[in-house]
Design a protein that fits this description.
Layout: H1 2-31, H2 41-63, H3 65-72, H4 76-97, H5 100-115, H6 128-147, H7 151-172, H8 177-194, E1 198-200, E2 206-207, E3 235-243, E4 250-251, E5 254-255, H9 256-264, E6 317-322, H10 326-339, E7 344-351, E8 354-356, E9 370-373, E10 398-399, E11 412-417, E12 435-439, H11 446-455, H12 458-464, H13 466-473, E13 478-480, H14 481-504, H15 517-522, H16 526-544, E14 556-558, H17 563-567, H18 570-582
Parallel strand pairs: 1-13, 3-6, 3-7, 7-11, 11-12
Antiparallel strand pairs: 1-2, 4-5, 8-9, 9-10, 12-14
Helix pairs in contact: 1-2, 1-3, 2-4, 4-5, 4-6, 5-6, 6-7, 7-8, 9-12, 12-13, 12-16, 14-16, 14-18
Amino acid sequence: MVKMESTEEQDRKLVLEFIHLLEKSKQLFNGLRDLPQYGHRQWQAYFGRTFDVYTKLWKFQQQHRMVLDSKYGLKRWQIGEIASKIGQLYYHYYLRTSETNYLNEAYQFYAAIRGRAYYSRAIKEDRPDLMVKKLRYYARFIVVCLLLKKMKLVRELVTELEKQIQEYTTTYEPEDHLEWSLVLEEIKGFIKAEAAVAVLHADSNPIVLSHSGSGSRLSPLTTPPCERSPHMTLSLQEILIVGSACEQAKFSELTMDMFRMLQTLEREPTETTHPMSVSHGMHGHDASPAASRIPPYGVPGSKGYMENSRHYRDNPHKYLLYKPSISQLLVFLASGFKELPPGGALLLYMSADGCFSTTKHPEDYGYELGGLATSVKRDGVDGGGLACRGKSYKETHCLYPGDLYPFTRRPMFIIIDSDNSFVFQHIPRYFGQPLVVLMSPQDVPPAFQAEVQHHGSLFTLFLHSPLTALCYICNVGDVPIHHWERCQSYVDHFITEASRLVTRCRIDEIDQGYIDSSYVQFFGDDFLRTLILRFVFCDVVLRLHRGFRGRHMRPRCEPPLPSNELLEHPTLSHIIFQLATALDVRGHFSDGPECD
């Protein structure tokens, strides 16, 4: 009898320990939303504590499942909820660190929820809030799969989500059913816009390429070659990706341009052999993630973190801002500026609609030529209107070129994708630091205007996937895989030749026949070199394309890249003609560069 009481007492203590861990984990998780979104050190220790508690909780429920089932009444959806929180934890850590391996970890937990059907009986619990949790889980899983380019699974999940929304609506007649219908339509629109050009397998089914330069993340196979020189001193360390274009396809506060650019500025995730990430803990989708997956690489601030295990980040740190207020944008810019280490560069990418000036004779290029609309949000400090003295008012929620002047105290690489991009070509180099501005065309041919406005910018598509962009402007909707790979070899050849031409240009900051030293200093960084060379590809292609006539339909850069030695070099033009012939679209291109 004493032995039985002892067992019951042990079981009671196990249940109490589980309840304590569960409450502690919820408390820490809810506190994540109160952490500052910018800066590095302020939030790392908190994430470390949260990971530690979820490690204990996940191991605990695995080791004592039978007791928790019988004495606590642990339900499968509750296990699913813990796994979902861990998936969210990894996803948010990916957003804060830009390390794509954490995205893989989020995927593993989300996939396990689906494989183990943890939420399968949610509808039978007669709790609408539980069904909402299930729908949110699906939406989050879809975002992760989109970022990992698992498009076949994305389509399956969308079909399942649609069925779950119908079931939720029929059963509960909830007030938020229209909101979920809008979420579904948003996802479907995003998927349609993302597939600008279909690459077809031998059986004519579309496939997603990961290591072919088709718009995937950077990998050893897709990193442009470079002849190193002592001038190549800078590395990209901080990134701001801002999406404010009004009509563009979006999902989960990611516009299509943001989605493409963030992948362009990341390396492919790699399988790790880190002892804290035991991949054999997962056997397909039918097993729970191993407890040892948490945390996989060590989270800064946690007990398992190995301080000296990695000296450099695989990816630059980045912030993603969807339609920020001007004060938010400037705060995040200042934070990135502050976090820059010696030898580091800051990149600002902005996709936005133009704010146009009515000043007939501008004298101040910093503020009188207009700028970019950031958001319709109000900061609460400007009276909600145009608050400045004098006759010439400025739009408050607009980023002007002059707003960026203070940040040019450090090396800065700016990409502006807008119908008012050219106003950013006059930013002065007051502080003598390296500065490059890549500007999109301000206009596209009428045939592309409606689609580009919704499906994502053509310029960003060129920077993300040059071959996809070329196919798109030549009305090539699908390409067989063997043919795609052949065409990709021409793009690779172009990039290699352009890289050789850049490194062999003479360096001078004044003479237009030479290349500005800023390009050379940025050129040693894999990401910035990729962007510069894809910009060259975009410029050469649009210069030769018959449909893009007029200077406003071609990109610009400041400082200007040399024409004869690079942009109009016959070797590069010849490769584009070869590529056009291979795609059977030679008729879209002229025989020589268009004159301004």
